[in-house]
Every structure is written in C-alpha cells, then in structure tokens.
Amino acid sequence: MIEKFDRMHGLPDGFFDITTANIRSLFPKPTLMQLDGRGGDFLFISILLHGNEYTGLKVMQKILADHADDLPRSILLFIGNVQAAEANRRFLPGQVDYNRCWPGTDLVPSPTSQMMQRVVEIALGLPLFAAIDIHNNTGKNPHYACITDPSLENQNLAARFNRVGMVFNHYGVSTMAFNGTCPAATLECGLPGDPRGIEHACRFIEDMLTLDELPHGKPTRHALHLVESHLTLNIPEHISYAFDPAADVDLRFESDFEDRNFTLFDPHQVFGYTRVERPLSITDTDGHDVTDEILRVEKGRIYLNNTMMPAMITRDELVIQQDCLCHLLQDYLPYHEVDL
Ligand SMILES: [Zn+2]
User: Fold this and answer.
1) Which pLDDT score is estimated for 335?
2) Beta carbons within 10 angstroms of residue 1's beta carbon
3) Could you tell me the pTM of the whole model?
4) Is the backbone of residue 309 left (phi > 0), alpha (psi -120 to 50) or beta?
5) What separation in Å is there between the alpha carbon of 136 and the centre of ligand 1?
6) Ligand 1 centroid to residue 226 C-alpha, Å
7) Are 309 and 264 in contact (CB under 8 A)?
8) Pick the CATH number of 6-223 from 3.40.50.1110, 3.40.630.10, 1.20.120.450, 3.40.50.740
9) Residue 214 Cα, ligand 1 centroid: separation in angstroms?
10) Which of 5, 166, 174, 222 yields a CA-CA distance of 20 to 30 A from 96?
11) What does the domain layout of the chain look like in residue ranges?
C-alpha cells in the first residue's frame, strides 16, 4: 500500500493565503506540484516534511509571489506532512517521521516510505539542478545546510547558504535520496517562522533559481566550516530533567544550556549535573549505544570525553521525546585528510 498524494501542474488559487492551520483546505493530502519555469532543468524543493516547521511554506509563498509567471527555473515542489502541519506537530501519533522514510531508510517499509519512493522516482525522471529540503529547528541555532554526502558539489551547495555546514547521516532523510543524482541539502532555518530564517532561505532559493552552475573546486575553510553530526543525545524516558541546576530531578542543565549551541565543550567543562548513574543515552548513526565512550559522570557532574559541539539543543519536551535533546558535532575530517 502507498500513502496517497496529489499531483498538480501549476499553482492552485489561494496558495498565497494559506497558513499551516488551514493548509488542508487547499492540500488535503501531501502534494507534488510542478511549476514550469524558463530553464530546462528543475529545482526539487520539499517543505513541511515536519509539520510544525513552516518556514518552507512562507519561503515558497514569497518566492512564487515574486516570480508569479516568470520562474527562472522550473520547480518540483513537494508539500509533505499536511496533516501534522494542520496540527502544528512534527508528525502525528501513528505516523512515521516524513524525513526518515525516504529511499535509503532503515525503517520497515510503510505506505509513507512507498510514497517517498514514488516522489523520488518522479523527480529523478526530470533533469534536476539541485534538491533542497527546508526545515526549522527548535533551539537557538545559526542557519546552516546539512548534507549527507560531503561531495564537492554538496559542499559548494552548503557553502552558498552559510559558512558553517553539517555532514549528517540519518538514514532515510530526503537529502540522501538525491545523492549521486544532483546536489542536495537540507536547510536549517532557525525557529519556525523566524523572519530572518525566511529571508535567508529566500535569498538562497533565488540564488538556486538563477545560478548557471555551482563551483567545482573545494570550498576554502573560510567559505565552509564543515562539521559532522554522528552522535545523537537522548534523555531516557524514566529520567526526570530540568534546565535549572537547583531543581530536584535526575538530570539538570544550566538554564542557558540552549545558548551553548555550536560552542565547544572541552573534556573539563561541566556538561550537566546528575544524581543517577546513566542520565543520558548517546547513539551513533548505526543506532549503537556509545554513551560510555562519549561521556563520563564524576561526582554528579557530566563531562564529555572529547571536545565536541552540541547542536540543535532543544528544551521542547515533545521534541526531546520524539527526536532528541541535541546532537554532538565534531569537525568533519574526510579519511584522506587524517594522518594515519
Ligand atoms: Zn525538520
């Protein structure tokens, strides 16, 4: 069985007036929309794979209003989890995460993964310039692009969004499905609806609509500081926690923990406080538990064993439960640049 999605050619009336709350009046189901432009190739753009991350909708409303009938390049737009968007949720109970079930996923096949498979087949039948997936996150983060394959074309794509870029390896994200076909990146645009994130993503999409080709050379370190995310940090369900060092709970963080996004923690800086032996759980991209390699608890204080950067820290309880507390980043070092 495949989850049903609608296909459209051209923009429906009312597109500029919808919000996520009433999105299903126009898009009752996930929708793949072809918008013809002047050029022969297509920009694939996905929005609302996470229902509450609505910056992508705002971006497309602005871009398409600006280019009403004169798109410099054709667009294949996929509007993802409209049901969750209506409810302002990442995804609904009983649904799979719409950004973990694209080709390459390690989740069991589902109607939603079949839909993504079909969407990718349709996209790959067209000449693609690049594939862009627009997201938000819940903490105070800089804007950055994520790539799953650090190919030069992907690095150059990421560098056009910001000087910090991330290599990440979650199976089944949309970006991974386009590797080897066209440059592909996920844009993390800060908090949902943040005007600066909308503006930044609009400039990037404008660039992608008019650019002849991406540079081929390796971006300098100044142009792109590439970090790697391969560790996910979760709070186990039975652990009570608070962002208040004085709270009477199992696990405590400083109240400004969120401000530590993209800042380095060295092995001697206190990461958090705890009264239990194993307050956190850290997994690598293969899902292996690597908690004991990565952190240590000494006299109620939690330390990391190596210098790392937390990213995408959230204080949102639902996100912590459905996704994670944060990721831990290190500088990306391709194999050939490591002294063996
Ligand atoms: Zn997202």
Assistant:
1) 53
2) 8
3) 0.85
4) beta
5) 6
6) 20
7) yes
8) 3.40.630.10
9) 25
10) 166
11) 6-223, 229-337
